[in-house]
Specification:
Elements (H helix, E strand, L loop, with lengths): L1 H15 L2 H23 L4 H30 L1
Helix pairs in contact: 1-3, 2-3
């Protein structure tokens, strides 16, 4: 019975790791929406905004990758 409880706790903790991924998906949607809105308002800033956009996108995406890595490590 003790081993079963540990397995259940492990799967619950892995499921909880998916919550930040949903927040990351929302964040990426808001990120691209804001970027396209700003480029639409000021097309001359396109090249400058693209540089900041790639850094921001990579930072947001890294959160999801860290959550995925932690979830996989918990399953092993």
């Amino acid at each position: 019975m003790e081993n079963l409880t540990a397995e259940v706790a492990k799967y619950i903790s892995v499921a909880l790791c998916t919550i930040p991924m949903a927040v990351v998906a929302w964040g990426i949607t808001k990120f691209w929406q804001t970027l396209f809105d700003n480029i639409g308002r000021n097309p001359q800033a396109n090249t400058e905004l693209k540089g900041y956009a790639m850094v921001g996108f990579a930072t947001i995406e890294a959160i999801a990758l860290y959550c995925l890595a932690i979830a996989i490590m918990m399953l092993l």
